[in-house]
Design brief:
Shape: globular
Radius of gyration: 18 Å
Number of helices: 6
Oligomer: single chain
CATH superfamily of the largest domain: Jelly Rolls
Largest sheet: 4 strands, antiparallel
Structural class: alpha+beta
Strand content: 15-25%
CATH architecture of the largest domain: Sandwich
Order of helices and strands: EEEEEEEEHHHEEHHEEH
Length: 225
């Protein structure tokens, strides 16, 4: 099993694989919609997705849910457990029937003492996520909602989609509610723009999934700069 990682250039060192330094743990299973941890039962462990998908979200001060990201097989989450904050607003929910491995923070710390390259691997994951979040904050600062939604769909297609022979990318269905929580707007506005993008031929969607014409979408973003 190998963790997914960004494409590296010829001169760039390959990223460290954390699974090369972590022992296997027992597998825990969660049903679709089941809470893995939340603000009332905060996480004390780091998790690895074996099967399924997990939504990480936070509760804003006004009570609205904000989606931080979605993680798929071979991706880690739950790193906030290392801070041991008394009050955490983060929660993790299984988007599908999901299987996870987990290591407590004390187990991770003990392993790092014996295998320090694990610390490098985890640090690389956190740095990459920081870069991704920086790009997302930039989009919130300069893009209107239509462009934020387009960028979000492209990002999800790159991370979670499956390319098809005819040049389209197929993704699992995302509810308009989930997309609105990720983009930072209302479900009704997301529905408006999803219908608009469908009429313009940039995507198709149904209860079975989303089909995205990614190259055409990227060109739309360039033309609307």
């Amino acid at each position: 099993m190998a963790t997914s990682s960004p494409t590296v250039s010829v001169n760039q060192k390959p990223l460290e694989d954390p699974l090369a330094h972590l022992p296997c743990s027992s597998i825990v299973e969660y049903r679709k919609g089941q809470m893995i941890y939340n603000q009332d039962q905060p996480s004390t462990a780091v998790y690895l997705v074996i099967d399924g998908k997990v939504k990480i979200s936070r509760l804003a001060d006004d009570g609205h849910q904000v989606v931080v990201d979605i993680y798929q097989p071979d991706e880690f989450f739950g790193e906030s457990a290392f801070l041991s904050l008394p009050h955490r607003s983060e929660q993790a929910t299984a988007l599908e029937n999901t299987k996870l491995m987990m290591w407590t923070t004390s187990e991770i710390e003990e392993i790092i003492m014996k295998r320090p390259r694990l610390a490098v691997a985890l640090l690389q994951i956190l740095v990459q996520r920081t870069i991704d979040f920086t790009h997302r904050i930039e989009s919130f600062s300069v893009d209107n909602i239509a462009r934020r939604l387009a960028r979000s769909l492209i990002r999800f297609s790159e991370r979670l989609g499956v390319p098809e022979e005819d040049g389209v990318t197929r993704m699992v269905p995302f509810t308009h509610e989930l997309l609105s929580q990720y983009v930072g707007t209302s479900r009704e506005i997301v529905t408006h723009y999803m219908n608009q993008f469908r009429r313009q031929g940039y995507l198709r969607y149904s209860r079975k999934g989303i089909i995205l014409y990614r190259d055409a979408f990227r060109e739309w973003l360039r033309q609307n700069d």
